Amino acid sequence: MAVLVIILGYLAGSIPFAYIASRVVKGIDIRTVGTLNMGAHNVMLEVGRGVGIGVTILDMAKGALPVLAACRLGLSPWMTLLVGLAAVLGHNYPLFLGFRGGKGMATSLGMLLPLMPSETLVTFLALAVLYILITHSISFSGLISFTGLSLLAWWRGRPLALILTPPILLLVMGVSV
Question: Which pTM was predicted?
Answer without folding.
Answer: 0.92
